[in-house]
Amino acid sequence: MQEKIRKTILYFLDNIGKHASHNDIINYLKDKLGELDEREINNELLKLARENKIISHVSVNKEKRYEAEVRRHYHFICRQCGAVRDLFMEAGAVNMIAEYAQQLAKSYAKIDRVNMSFQGICHECRKEIKY
Ligand SMILES: [Zn+2]
Ligand SMILES: [Zn+2]
């Protein structure tokens, strides 16, 4: 079962819910595999994260989102509908910002991770806003 849970989580994150909440994952797995012990799913999520097969470094409305895209990237988040899109930014641009932040923080910290997100209204939501 554990192997099936693992495969289904990865399939879901790869193909359907690219930035899925914990609930999205639980609901999809229960739908596909029948009644499941949520602890089994949680254990598998932890294992996949430890193996660096999935990450959760973006939140929408304080809700963690999981994804199987583990290459370095940043996010666009729609303020209206919460849609999340990946932004693959050139390392040079990000390093410049990180170095600047390191300058500002140098008396008290060593920065070793950058987690940036950009917000706005996606085109889908913009279409629905009529003034
Ligand atoms: Zn939107
Ligand atoms: Zn992402």
From TrEMBL:
Organism domain of life: Bacteria
Keywords linked to the UniProt accession: DNA-binding, Metal-binding, Repressor, Transcription, Transcription regulation, Zinc
Gene3D superfamilies listed in its UniProt record: 3.30.1490.190
Protein's UniProt keywords contain Nucleotide-binding: no
Record GO terms (molecular function): DNA-binding transcription factor activity; transcription cis-regulatory region binding; zinc ion binding
Names of the cofactor(s): Zn(2+)
InterPro entries, A to Z: FUR (IPR002481), Fur_C (IPR043135), WH_DNA-bd_sf (IPR036390)
Cofactor binding: number and manner: Binds 1 zinc ion per subunit.
Pfam families to which the protein is assigned, alphabetical: FUR
GO biological process, one term: regulation of secondary metabolite biosynthetic process
SUPFAM superfamilies named among the record's database cross-references: Winged helix' DNA-binding domain
Binding, Zn(2+): 78, 81, 122, 125
Keyword Cytoplasm listed: no
Protein name, as recorded: Transcriptional repressor
Source organism (scientific name): Candidatus Falkowbacteria bacterium CG10_big_fil_rev_8_21_14_0_10_43_11
